[in-house]
Design goal:
Layout lengths: L17 E15 L1 H4 L7 E3 L6 E15 L11 E12 L4 E10 L2 H11 L3 E10 L4 E7 L5 E12 L4 H7 L3 E6 L2 E9 L4 E11 L1 H4 L12 E12 L4
Parallel strand pairs: 5-6, 5-9
Antiparallel strand pairs: 1-3, 1-12, 2-4, 3-4, 4-5, 6-7, 7-8, 8-11, 9-10, 10-12, 11-12
Pfam family, one: DUF2071
Protein name: DUF2071 domain-containing protein
């Protein structure tokens, strides 16, 4: 049985092992046939569907105030802009979660640590957040290999509450990844997303194509959302 979509996160089992503040989040999403994404899922996970299709997300935000095992916020290494390509899946236990195809970050040590600890596909990139007159702009360029991103968004002021599509795309309380030959689930917990509407002003992207999802970044997204952010806590892998 697949767990229901819920705006309020379930409590973590045991103490949190890490926390992060996520701010200035830009959510772009496109509908994609589930069959096109099945090959990108880890073993034991299948594409999750909403309104007759699966979805791919292109998410940009600023990460800071990162802690580990109750430590004070980690300076420098725990603060950077990030851009990720993510999918939505459900496992054999009915747990819903995200699957990261790629994540761009500017702190090489953090990139290497995430890859080593959890096999999460981070890439070292020059990532920048620029705040303008009522707009936010994110840029990213990989330091090695191809992969570029530039987006300008104008956040709106209309709250997005009780929207089934927005809830499906954002109310996700864990991620799936492969570690030592098996699929693991990393749970997270945070307050409900404070979402508002937004207008996408400009997008130039090759990250989706590099992730194995070509041909969609040159079409308008099916969902555009913005959030000022949340603080999230992570539990132990299971």
């Amino acid at each position: 049985m697949i767990e229901p979509i819920r705006q309020v996160a379930p409590e973590l089992s045991g103490r949190a092992v890490a926390s992060q503040r996520w701010s200035k989040l830009a959510f772009l999403h496109w509908r994609v046939p589930s069959a096109a994404l099945a090959g990108l899922m880890p073993e034991g996970v299948r594409p999750d569907e909403h309104d007759g299709s699966s979805w791919v997300g292109l998410i940009a935000f600023y990460l800071d105030r990162a802690t580990l095992f109750g430590s004070p916020p980690i300076p420098y290494l725990g603060s950077f802009a990030e851009v990720n390509v993510r999918l939505y899946g459900v496992d054999e236990q009915g747990r819903r979660g995200v699957i990261f195809c790629s994540l761009e970050a500017s702190r090489l040590t953090s990139v290497l640590a995430a890859r080593a600890a959890f096999s999460i596909p981070y890439f070292w990139a020059k990532t920048v957040l620029i705040e303008g007159d009522g707009t936010i702009e994110y840029t990213s360029r990989r330091m090695v290999g191809d992969g570029e991103f530039r987006m300008i968004m104008r956040p709106g002021s209309t709250p997005v509450v009780g929207d089934p599509t927005a809830d499906f795309l954002t109310a996700r309380w864990g991620l799936f990844t492969r570690r030592f030959g098996r699929t693991i689930f990393l749970p997270n917990h945070h307050e409900p997303w404070p979402l508002v509407d937004a207008e996408l002003l400009s997008l130039d992207d090759t990250l989706l194509q590099r992730a194995g999802i070509p041909g969609i970044s040159n079409t308008p997204p099916d969902s555009v959302l913005y959030s000022e952010g949340v603080t999230t806590w992570f539990g132990r892998a299971r």
